Amino acid sequence: MQRMGMVIGLKPEKAAEYKRLHAAVWPQVLEMISACNIQNYTIFLKEPENLLFGYWEYHGTDFEADAARMAADPKTQEWWAVCMPCQEPLETRKEGEWWAMMEEVFHHE
After folding, report:
1. Catalytic position from the list 22, 59, 107, 108
2. Residue 27: what pLDDT?
């Protein structure tokens, strides 16, 4: 299992919409997340800075393949088209990233 964390900005005027969307994520999107070996997916919001922190646990063996499968899913693409206008990617993210991936520096069980 691999723990993964990521961060992105949230446009202040879109915070209520983003919360509303994530209070009722489409079932097909949730099914695809699970089918791609992602568990314990959580998104936290820090206001007033409007930073979203995402966390999940990847239980597969080929994250790139699972990520590509998810990205190719039409319902997921539709969901992203609704959510992405709410988000504001960090200028410091790596090329090709939307959410900026984070380095795990500590874990305790």
Report:
1. 22
2. 98
